[in-house]
Amino acid sequence: MEKTPQGTSVGVDDPYEPVERCDYLTDDGRCRYAVEHGHNDPEFARERQADDLRCPAADPEGEWEWSDCPQFRARQRSRECIRCGLEERRLAHEDERPLLEEHHLKYAADANDSESDDEELSHEITVFLCRWCHAKIHDSWARIDDDVSPDPEAIAEAEGRRSKEHGEFGFESAAERYAEDE
Questions:
Q1: Does residue 84 fall inside a structural domain?
Q2: The whole model's pTM is what?
Q3: Which domain holds residue 87?
Q4: Residue 13 located in a structural domain
Q5: Domain count of the chain?
Q6: Strand 124-130 and strand 73-75: pairing?
């Protein structure tokens, strides 16, 4: 299983497996990175421009895999745990710890590794895990693709937040609120 530079598990053998698409891929299969951020990698941008901005990794007959693209990035957009499906519940003006945490599947080469002179290609692959699944993954015994239900503590926390949300939906006029203070 893949490991972080500190040696803890990331919960997958292949970090590219849960990737649906690159963040820079447009709906028509073109590379948005070459247009919007091409100044950061002019050679890459020129190659994509010469190929009409076609993404070689997204093309079914393409010559690349996601891992071959030097500008690849994939961040999960849906706000739910990729492992158990728990949905995020954030309350405005509350400082409670979020239910979901970002989990990185691909890490840069270890900065302390003195044997490697050249920089290893590093991609940003990020998914969301609930706090409970995240802890289990890093405890090295759980996998991201496990078929699990949310932890009972996670359900209780989410339901507590849901109850607070519903309490906010109730209407109480200012006269009623201030009458209670007197």
A1: yes
A2: 0.77
A3: 78-182
A4: no
A5: 1
A6: parallel
